[in-house]
From TrEMBL:
Protein name, as recorded: Amino acid ABC transporter permease
Stated family: Belongs to the binding-protein-dependent transport system permease family. HisMQ subfamily.
Organism taxonomic ancestry: Bacteria, Pseudomonadati, Pseudomonadota, Gammaproteobacteria, Oceanospirillales
Organism: Modicisalibacter tunisiensis
Domain annotation ABC transmembrane type-1: ranges: 23-212
Pfam families: BPD_transp_1
Function: Part of the binding-protein-dependent transport system for glutamine; probably responsible for the translocation of the substrate across the membrane.
Family annotation (NCBIfam families): HEQRo_perm_3TM
């Protein structure tokens, strides 16, 4: 079989301005969803370690459901299935943010649980012995240390969520992959365009990884 193919760098470079239009939506959906997911994660992460089963088991159910099902299925359910329940349409961007928030929230819940439980019990007991209430001991002693330990894992979850937005082209969100699909439909340069899509995703995730390493070097995360 005679294969005579050359990568068209000119076509790849020409696609960049069009692909860049998808980056704002990629960032809005990923970071918007992560912000909401962080709040969800704190709430359900703390419920997860509650001694009261009435609080703990609903948190366990939420975490297992959203960690055990694909984010693609979740966004399809929100975009196509949920409107049948609420009786009205849901915007594609809203569905994407909700899917990232719920999916990331489940993983962040476990990160929060692990971070809080990693703090030695002796520190809590020492804080109580100094006259702090349980809430004050958690707010001023336990949580600040736990948060520092959680940052690397939270950063990794951020990278995962950014990459997950590539799945949302199936509901018409104009993020990077969707922009690439539209451009390919008129230029027939799939290899070059998807190569550039991959490079743009890599640039975003490497930037986040660099920021995390910078925090680690400055001693702002970890132990």
């Amino acid at each position: 079989m005679d294969v005579n193919f050359q990568f068209d760098w000119q076509a790849a470079i020409a696609s960049i301005p069009y692909l860049l239009d998808g980056i704002p939506w990629t960032l809005i959906i990923s970071f918007g969803g992560l912000a909401i997911g962080f709040v969800i994660g704190i709430v359900f992460g703390l419920l997860r370690i509650s001694p009261l089963w009435l609080l703990r088991w609903p948190a366990v159910a939420y975490i297992e459901i959203f960690r055990g099902t694909p984010v693609l299925v979740q966004v399809l359910f929100i975009f196509y299935g949920l409107p049948q329940i609420i009786g009205g349409p849901i915007d594609a961007v809203t569905a994407g943010i909700a899917a990232i928030a719920l999916n990331a929230g489940a993983y962040i819940s476990e990160i929060v649980r692990g971070g809080v439980q990693s703090i030695e019990k002796g520190q809590r007991e020492a804080a109580l012995s100094l006259g702090l209430s349980r809430a004050q001991a958690f707010r001023y002693v336990i949580w600040p240390q736990a948060l520092r330990r959680m940052i690397p894992a939270l950063g990794n979850q951020g990278i995962v969520s950014i990459k997950d937005t590539s799945l949302f082209s199936v509901i018409g969100v104009g993020e990077l992959v969707r922009q690439g699909q539209i451009y390919i439909a008129t230029t027939f340069t799939a290899l070059e365009v998807y190569f550039m899509v991959a490079m743009l995703y890599l640039a975003i995730t490497l930037s986040l990884s660099f920021a995390l390493r910078l925090l680690e070097r400055r001693g702002l995360v970890g132990q």
